[in-house]
Amino acid sequence: MTWFNKQSRLVQVLLLLIPIVSWVVEIYVRVTAVLQKPTVGNILGLVFGLIIPVFGWLDLIWVLLFNHLVLAS
Prior knowledge:
By secondary structure, this protein is an all-alpha fold. Helices cover about 75% and strands about 0% of the residues. The protein is built from 5 helices and no strands.
């Protein structure tokens, strides 16, 4: 999770714009978030990221607005 948050916002947006890369980055960030801090929000984010393919687009908008993924604190 910290790797993604340390990237510039432009790199974060580019990683989330490419569909397959977006999904891989999202799963990686969410798994590391759950391993570092197993909260309900992080676990729900991982489950939604795995099940709902369009969750990456929501993450893209969320990163633009709040500089972190949805349900990843």
